[in-house]
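Bit of a strange request maybe. I'm writing a small parser for structure token strings and I need a real example to test against, not something I typed by hand. Could someone generate the tokens for this chain?
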Amino acid sequence: MKIHQLETFRTAVPLHTPFKTALRTVTVAEAIVVKLTCDNGVIGWGEAPPTVVITGESLSSIEHSIQHVIKPVIMGKNLLNHENLFQHLHSLLIRNTSAKAAVDMAIYDCLAQHCHLPLYQFLGGYRDELETDYTVSVNNPKEMGDDAAAYVNKGFDVLKVKVGKDEIETDIKRIHEIRQRIGYDVKIRLDANQGWESKAAIRAIRKMEDLDLNIELVEQPVPAHDIEGLKMVTDEVETLIMADESVFTPYEAFEVLKTRSADLINIKLMKAGGIYQAQKINDLAEVCGVECMVGSMIETRLGITAAAHFAASRKNVTRFDFDAPLMLADDIVVGGILYNGRKIMLPTKAGLGIERVKV
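Reply from user aminoacidic:
Good idea to test on real output. This should exercise your parser:
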């Protein structure tokens, strides 16, 4: 089963509401879609959104990396020798992880189809259903309270709340307002997107603990490079601390795990470079007794379907952040995962279960 053709397409899907974090505001979900065709007619799909402030990649750079660096090397390669293929893929470029991820997921799609298995079963098949949280964008406290209440009314019982954009006192007001609106039966996860410094983060989290705001975890409270600061926060608060932007590679995961700098790790295919490397990160974490979340960028159901297959395949992945397709005003994917409120059902068809993408 050899690679016969690799095509890329640009897509753009509007969000029904702007998505705001400490790093950026998104109104349109742009992506490069990959279509990989094998010589036996099997087709695999992949997706890579540009997230310049996190991965450093633009639409143009993703497209160039795939068409002019990756494609010339992998054309004609036999997918059944996939260990060799993935080694080539990850040695061709430094970083450029989203470009690699799009090709990686298309390869896995083809491999699972060849074995007549849904991808999550091909990868291990631990579960076939997931539950996602829903993200509350960073806005003024009242607007965030309104949004949180609306999401809870729709059946979501875990909210991921964006903070880290303004003064910490404002963030505390935001969380207090949300708790007043939704009560204490709903889990709240905070995501500071690197928006705090270590001492300020410690002060903020301790105050939230004193106020009994019942925060399940705080994701990436400090800048990605500040592993010492991340460890300081982890050591000084009772609330669980999750590393996100600090962990792209298995080596970075090893450093965080070795130093016990975080309680949890958020794996994203777009950071890891796809499923091949994501599995290594999760395996390292599991050996160290550290659970993982699988999250995403602002992606369509194509990219999220690949991430969900990986997440469903592994016992050590215990949290799921797959709400991005619910934020989009249109759906360009036929097949793939299905949503029923917060529940996500994995497809029963082989591979990703994607029939086609409207490109």
